[in-house]
Amino acid sequence: MITAEKARKMADEFLENRIGESRRRVEKEISEAAARGEVVIHIGGPIPQELMAELRANGFTVDSSFYLNDTTYTISW
């Protein structure tokens, strides 16, 4: 049986990877939209709370909408 410490480490690594993947996806979308002269993107979730807080701290506006069990985020600058 694995230890609680090992299980916690596995969970933490999973969450870090998920946040990193989400960050790369959002940054790519923002960069591409800004290069086209746009000031907003709409992106399907999930976006981790930590990443939303980071976006807001960097001056972005982050809103979410929920429709038919699907969350869409609107990120504007």
Task: Tell me about this structure.
There is one protein chain. The chain has 77 residues and is of the alpha+beta class. The protein has 2 helices and 3 strands; from the N terminus they run H-E-H-E-E. The protein has a 3-stranded antiparallel beta sheet with strand order 1-3-2. The N and C termini lie far apart (49 Å).
Q: Topology, pairings included?
A:
Blueprint: H1 4-35, E1 40-44, H2 49-57, E2 61-67, E3 70-76
Antiparallel strand pairs: 1-3, 2-3
Summarize this entry quickly.
This protein is α+β, with helices and mostly antiparallel strands and 77 residues long. It is built from 2 helices and 3 strands, in the order αβαββ.
Number of self-contained structural domains: 1
> If you average the pLDDT, what whole number results?
94
Low-pLDDT runs of 5+ residues are none
The secondary-structure class comes to alpha+beta
Task: Summarize the main sheet.
Answer: 3 strands, antiparallel
Number of strands: 3
Strands across the major sheet, in which order? 1-3-2
Helix content percent band? 40-55%
Question: Oligomeric status of the shown chains?
Answer: single chain
Described by the principal axes of the CA atoms, the overall outline is elongated
Percentage of β-strand residues: 15-25%
